Backbone:
């Protein structure tokens, strides 16, 4: 595997899920693969889970790990070609990428949507430069549009906890005080569409996800109706993807105080089929989900986060095998 961005990059999902379980049985059995190999993890944005789980996965495989927080101690990086660099950015990605690549064998990058331009974000202009100019395998640790390590971990978690062969999985928008990117819901939708699940998305009108990720998934603007009979409820906020009105890209369309009936609570969970609750974390309690639901016996947020180590290890293992 040279790039890990989309569900198609992982190939057959059944094989990937079986490999995840093999990792869980003994995660140290491939230490020879990573001997004298270095993973460079580059963060343009904050992280708790991705940073720790990916480092742990690389160490499980015997790799050396270098973590770079670009905005804390490195030179500020320019991404646009052709600009006169007379501002606060001292180095261009076009030099920085091959230099960083010379110190490692595999590169992971986190770079969120900047909301300056839908086109720039949805063309993945930062990650694309790493793919083009590093000469190394590149995996996405959450980009402007996708978070595949999270979606793979989510699928592993659903597979481990499902009680029926084809569970109903509901992705629900929930309120948040700030404008958040669409990377998590995009990838979750993409992976659920590829998995053997009955997938439904619910959100207020105006938050339609990009068709390249959500495909022909059923969308219901009535959250209570969408929750009926659900086996898994996946909550997440996202800002306007700008699908129907590009000018609204990255905007919060309503004052969140008026949207608090979308917060996942016992009221909605009562119409599900005793659904399991999921969220990628970090989560704002009593905005996205009430205390009782996230702390309750049906919450999967902790095992879901633990599976981030597993999804990262499968991806790194496959990249090492292909070096
Ligand atoms: N879910 C997730 O990616 O968490 P972090 O932002 O803490 O890495």
Residues:
């Amino acid at each position: 595997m040279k790039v890990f961005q989309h569900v198609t990059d992982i190939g057959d999902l059944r094989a990937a899920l079986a490999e995840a379980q093999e990792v869980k049985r003994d995660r140290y059995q491939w230490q020879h693969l990573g001997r004298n190999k270095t993973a460079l993890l580059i963060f343009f944005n904050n992280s708790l889970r991705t940073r720790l789980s990916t480092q742990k996965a690389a160490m499980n495989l015997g790799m050396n790990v270098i973590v770079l927080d670009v905005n804390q101690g490195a030179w500020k990086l320019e991404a646009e070609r052709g600009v006169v660099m007379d501002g606060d950015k001292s180095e261009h990605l076009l030099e920085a990428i091959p230099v960083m690549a010379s110190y490692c064998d595999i590169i992971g990058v986190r770079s969120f949507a900047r909301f300056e331009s839908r086109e720039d974000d949805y063309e993945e202009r930062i990650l694309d430069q790493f793919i083009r100019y590093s000469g190394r395998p590149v995996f996405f640790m959450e980009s402007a549009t996708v978070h595949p390590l999270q979606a793979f971990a989510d699928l592993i978690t659903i597979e481990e906890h499902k009680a029926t062969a084809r569970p109903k999985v509901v992705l629900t928008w929930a309120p948040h005080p700030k404008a958040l990117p669409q990377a998590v819901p995009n990838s979750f939708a993409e992976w659920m569409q590829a998995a053997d699940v009955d997938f439904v998305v619910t959100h207020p009108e105006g938050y339609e996800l990009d068709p390249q990720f959500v495909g022909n998934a059923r969308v219901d603007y009535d959250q209570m109706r969408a929750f009926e009979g659900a086996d898994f409820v996946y909550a997440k906020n996202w800002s306007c993807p700008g699908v129907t009105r590009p000018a609204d890209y990255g905007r919060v369309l309503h004052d969140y105080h008026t949207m608090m009936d979308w917060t996942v609570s016992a009221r909605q969970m009562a119409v599900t089929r005793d659904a399991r609750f999921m969220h990628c974390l970090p989560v704002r309690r009593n905005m996205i989900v009430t205390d009782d639901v996230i702390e309750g016996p049906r919450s999967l947020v902790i095992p879901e986060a633990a599976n981030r180590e597993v999804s990262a290890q499968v991806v790194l293992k496959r990249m090492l095998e292909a070096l």
